[in-house]
Amino acid sequence: MVKVGIIGATGYAGAELVRLLINHKDVEIKWYGSRSYIEKPYAEVYQNLFQIVEDKCLDDNMEELAKQVDVIFTATPQGFCASMVTEDMLQQTKIIDLSADFRIKDVTTYEKWYNIEHKSPQFIDEAVYGLCEINRDQVKEARLVANPGCYTTCSILSIYPLCKEGLIDTSTIIIDAKSGTSGAGRGAKVDNLFCEVNESMKAYGVTTHRHTPEIEEQLGYAAGEKILLNFTPHLVPMNRGILVTAYATLKKDVTYEEVKAVYDKHYEKEKFVRVLDKDVCPQTRWVKGSNYVDVNFKIDERTNRIVMMGALDNLVKGAAGQAVQNMNLMFGFEESEGLESVPMFP
Length: 346
What we know:
CATH superfamily of the largest domain: Dihydrodipicolinate Reductase, domain 2
Strand order of the largest sheet: 8-9-7-10-13-12-11
Distance between the termini: 35 Å
Strand content: 15-25%
Oligomer: single chain
Number of strands: 13
């Protein structure tokens, strides 16, 4: 059994990790870390786990935790993991960080977009960007994984095949994305109150959203060139889900069959990426509660542009599920172990 510790276990992503790992046949959760609820029974924080989890919440002492477990998940705000991780720690345990601390390879870019000093830049080069469908082999050998963000996962997987195969002009990429309110975390914020969110929809982080450089960097690796793009996120009144609609100009005339073949080339063997049938648009309701990403595309011959679409559950494939998928690769388990849940509907 792999012993697991979760720092930030009482946030939405941390709670989703608990839900998934409880059903993982090769895992034992040893540490429910939470700065806000120390000594409080975990099932009192999340009543859905009454008589399922008997443990109490512990603190966020990663140094002590590293001595007790085989892998630590840090579902924490930006800056926490980078301020805590040490070489000693990484020699004792593996770390999967769900924050952005190690996702961006350029320290200056990270510090500019997140407006904080990076406390452990010496580990950035080593950290593997944990998008399994693209970096599977590197994840298997990693001791530090940077778990991608929800917007980024959906955006990258929707666009990646066309960047990789050079079918689109990358200077024309525009990404329009929608997220449910759980993506903003569990902390109390006026902007996320029911009356502020319900029956409304808004763009936010326009031209400044922190996932922008992460998407640019990863798609740039695929295309083999520096990419600058427009990314605009929107908050919609639902609990879970990310929907991405991205646009780009085609470099040449292509048929539906040719583009479909490109997506199939990259994803037909991927369990969790589903390329939908022709003219079927991804919807968040068809991936809710699951680790699946649904993607598709539509060619607009009139404008010589292509519309690339994707949908996922921001708490599963966009956070905790992806982290479990990474853990499975790191420890040699079946990649889908603990992640076989069929999407919930309604």
